[in-house]
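Hi everyone, sorry if this is the wrong subforum. Our group has a chain we'd like a structural model of before ordering constructs, and none of us has done structure prediction before. Sequence below.
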Amino acid sequence: MDLIDTLSGSMMEGFFPAGWDLQKIDALAANQARFGQRESWWHPSFEPVRCDSYDDFDVCMGHEIALEIQRA
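Answer:
Right subforum, don't worry. Here is the predicted structure as tokens:
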């Protein structure tokens, strides 16, 4: 069971922007060899940050959200 297979008819149907190709996104995320490698479409200032655990990810994401709110 995954998001793509269960999206149709769920409360999440229509949630994602119409232009998003979820199957393409899923395929990109499944390719472990590409993780961390710069892609041509990335913003020049974007730098991926490795998190060693979900807790680390939560902290990093929280800080980034707070910084965006502060900049607004």
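For your construct planning: The CA atoms of residues 57 and 63 lie 10 Å apart. The helical segments are 3-6, 22-30, 54-71.
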